[in-house]
């Protein structure tokens, strides 16, 4: 990309364009950024051996992510390798998520920054040869849902894509308050459950109800009585915040996943009560299975869409 043709390339509605032209006949890099995103240009470098552009994208209540794009001219590999190694280590030291796009295979230059390739297959086909040159590198591979090549005959270099879990702020779960009666023992009479209220009754008997009559106004007396009663009940049936189930679940959610999540939560409660190593091991297996089912369902959903 040269200064001559970048004006044509940058005219995509609703996108910002950050580019670094080349001094040579071919090369250069450019980033198209969604116009709704807030970003800051960190660095632009144009060298006879390479071009590079780095930006930081900001999200509300989320860590910034750093995106970079590099193009190697292959006329000075040592110079390019040194720049890649020094710059990626500097960027990695920020502790932020990094996404690097480039057309080089100097993997050794990225090892110290823990940047891993996401494509993992040949990206350039020329005659009978196949080379894994173009790639997208990340330092958080657990957030990658799916990645690969877009096969076209426009060029012998295929286009790459990488879909990650969203960095958008999540909507908070709705909650409601309910009394927790789990500490009240239950006995059965004629197969009907009957709560054992003996402890609550004992607490109510020792409550100083006569203090209600120190007030002259009936409203003050009623408020005092309610406070005494609620304080007594709170000792045995405290209020708990309960999460309200979403009416519209995410499109990849299924009944099997919901059942597995419920099993996970049940085993977690049992493990906390017993603190038994076997119970904790069973909970961890159920938790790992639930995580795997969710990731698999998300991946299949995004592949289809």
Brief description of this entry?
The chain is of the alpha+beta class and 305 residues long. The chain has helices at 6-9, 77-92, 198-205, 218-234, 255-274, 277-304, and strands spanning 15-20, 29-34, 38-46, 50-59, 62-72, 97-103, 116-117, 124-126, 129-131, 134-138, 144-150, 159-164, 175-179, 186-189, 192-195, 239-243. Helix 5 (255-274) packs antiparallel against helix 6.
What does it look like?
The protein is an alpha+beta fold and 305 residues long. It is built from 6 helices and 16 strands. The strands form 6 sheets. A 6-stranded mixed β-sheet has the order 3-4-5-6-10-7, with helices on one face. The chain has a two-stranded antiparallel ribbon with strand order 1-2. A two-stranded antiparallel ribbon has the order 8-9. Helix 5 (255-274) packs antiparallel against helix 6 (277-304). The two termini are 32 Å apart. The mean pLDDT is 80.
Key structural traits:
single chain, 305 residues, alpha+beta, six-stranded mixed β-sheet, two-stranded antiparallel sheet, 30% helix, elongated
């Amino acid at each position: 990309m040269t200064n001559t043709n970048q004006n044509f390339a940058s005219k995509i509605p609703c996108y910002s364009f950050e580019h670094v032209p080349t001094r040579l006949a071919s090369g250069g890099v450019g980033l198209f950024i969604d116009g709704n995103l807030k970003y800051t240009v960190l660095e632009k470098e144009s060298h006879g051996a390479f071009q590079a552009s780095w930006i930081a994208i900001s999200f509300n209540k989320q860590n910034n992510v750093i995106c970079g794009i590099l193009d190697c001219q292959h006329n000075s590999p040592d110079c390019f390798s040194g720049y890649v190694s020094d710059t990626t280590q500097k960027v990695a030291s920020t502790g932020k998520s990094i996404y690097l796009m480039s057309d080089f295979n100097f993997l050794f230059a990225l090892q110290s920054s823990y940047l891993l390739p996401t494509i993992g297959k040949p990206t350039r086909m020329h005659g009978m040869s196949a080379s894994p040159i173009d790639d997208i590198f990340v330092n958080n591979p657990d957030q990658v849902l799916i990645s690969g090549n877009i096969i076209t005959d426009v060029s012998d270099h295929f286009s790459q894509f990488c879909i990650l879990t969203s960095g958008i702020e999540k909507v908070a779960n709705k909650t409601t308050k309910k009394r927790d009666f789990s500490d009240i023992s239950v006995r059965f009479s004629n197969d009907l459950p009957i709560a054992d209220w003996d402890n609550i009754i004992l607490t109510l008997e020792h409550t100083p109800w006569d203090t209600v009559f120190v007030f002259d106004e009936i409203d003050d007396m009623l408020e005092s009585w309610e406070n005494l009663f609620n304080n007594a009940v709170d000792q045995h049936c405290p209020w708990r915040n309960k999460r309200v189930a979403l009416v519209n679940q995410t499109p990849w959610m299924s009944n099997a996943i919901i059942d597995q999540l419920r099993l996970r939560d049940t085993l977690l409660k049992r493990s906390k009560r017993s603190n038994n190593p076997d119970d904790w091991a069973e909970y961890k297996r159920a938790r790992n299975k639930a995580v795997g089912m969710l990731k698999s369902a998300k991946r299949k959903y995004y592949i289809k869409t």
